[in-house]
Amino acid sequence: MQVSILIIGIVAALPSGGLSWSLFTPSMPSSTSATFNDRPRRVHQKPVHIQMKVKVALVGLPNVGKSTLFNAIAQKSIAEAKNFPFCTIEPNVTPVPIPDANLLPLANVAKSKKALPANLFLVDVAGLVKGASRGEGLGNKFLATVRECSIIVHVVRCYADNDVIHVDGKVDPVADAEVVNLELLLADLSHVQRRLEKSTCTGEEREVLQKVEIALENGLPAKSIGLSSEEMRLIKSMGLLTLKPVIYAFNVDEEGAMKLAESYMKQLHYCDLATSFFLVVSSKFESELCMKPEGERRDYLESIGLRSEPVLELDEQLSFIRLPLLVKDVLDLALVYTGPGVPPGRSQTTKSHILASPSSVFDLAGKLHGDIQKALCMLKLSMLQA
């Protein structure tokens, strides 16, 4: 009986392809609830520490629209966006839900009262300027914050606006992006060289860092030299900035900017185009739109000439939808679902969690709970015997 119930739950929750694995413990029929309640270890026991905390750093020069984009993605006004450099000093952090078409259907199956999506944590840090790797501006504090994040979203200003100050006096997207990329690279070089000076840096770790040092001295980010998974593990504690995946967010105020963004990507130095991604955003437009009640958004769109664009279709093109999904894909994350393994009358919450994509459903089950992993063993056995 136990195995058959788990078979139904697992099969019902597995999506058809894609990066997202899911595992769900369904509500148990009343005829079997007494059997489970008699067990000393129960399948619906609360899992512990199954979710990763994924931090996403918004970086870029001052006054490129990072805080405005942060507010647009958060769908509320949190970060102060002012027309002067370093208006952001302390990092702003907000949870951002990952859009998920599976969560509500699973919650309905379980008759849960609540459905809670998995969250990324978006971090808006101070603007970076030339010399940040040497501590200029808020460099040291900025870089320490970014090292703690899993991925970098590099915001690049692509619009001219005389009312918005540019730190170098003119807008040049390629040059601006290269300032940030070079500072990240120089910061890593200094970080690696300090580690190599220590007597505790020996053996395989030293060999890997020497390889990274040569690449950085030649203007190559660490992720471009093809480190193995074991080499990555040896230097993971370094938190190297140029090992982190990068998504370039080209901030525009015009339509049809996709080809322009592609040309910028091809011109960038100090980045690895094979492992970098980009999207085009309009932080000012998106921020203004998200501040309006849903009932007023269509009128606002019509007032700026987007009368024929359905609001629902437009939402799918906005950063608060696109960016979390792109981060999930770039980091190869899995969405895992847990539900209440109790009778429907006691069903409370179905929840989505973020995990690094496991190599198998069996490994995924073990991250949720040992009893679920054991049930999967029995599931495989029963299928073989059948």
How would you portray this structure in words?
The chain has 386 residues and is α/β, with parallel strands linked by helices. The protein folds into two domains: 2-51 and 333-385, no CATH class; 55-88 and 125-192 and 243-330, Rossmann fold, CATH 3.40.50. Helices cover 41% and strands 14% of the residues. The protein is built from 15 helices and nine strands. It has helices at residues 2-13, 30-37, 66-74, 103-110, 139-147, 173-196, 203-217, 229-234, 258-267, 283-290, 294-303, 311-315, 319-330, 361-368, 370-385; strands at residues 55-59, 92-97, 114-116, 119-124, 151-157, 246-251, 276-281, 333-338, 349-356. It has a six-stranded mixed beta sheet with strand order 2-4-1-5-6-7, sandwiched between helices. A three-stranded mixed beta sheet has the order 3-9-8. Strand 6, helix 9 (258-267) and strand 7 form a beta-alpha-beta unit. The longest helix has 24 residues, at 173-196. The model is unreliable at 1-49 and 380-386 (pLDDT under 50). Residues 54-301 form the OBG-type G domain. GO terms for molecular function: ATP binding. Keywords: ATP-binding, Nucleotide-binding. Pfam families: MMR_HSR1. This is OBG-type G domain-containing protein.
- CATH class identity of the largest domain: Alpha Beta
CATH topology of the largest domain: Rossmann fold
- Class from secondary-structure proportions: alpha/beta
Tally of separate helices:
15
Work out the radius of gyration: 24 Å
The overall strand count is 9
Mean pLDDT: 75
- The quaternary structure here is single chain
**Spatial order of strands in the largest sheet:** 2-4-1-5-6-7
Which CATH architecture of the largest domain would you pick?
3-Layer(aba) Sandwich
Low-confidence stretches: 1-49, 380-386
Helix percent reads: 40-55%
Strand fraction? 5-15%
Number of individual domains: 2
Specify the biggest β-sheet: 6 strands, mixed
Shape: flat
N- to C-terminal separation?
A: 15 Å
Can you write the helix and strand succession as a string? HHEHEHEEHEHHHEHEHHHHEEHH
Domain OBG-type G: 54-301
Protein name: OBG-type G domain-containing protein
GO molecular function, one term: ATP binding
Pfam families: MMR_HSR1 (PF01926)
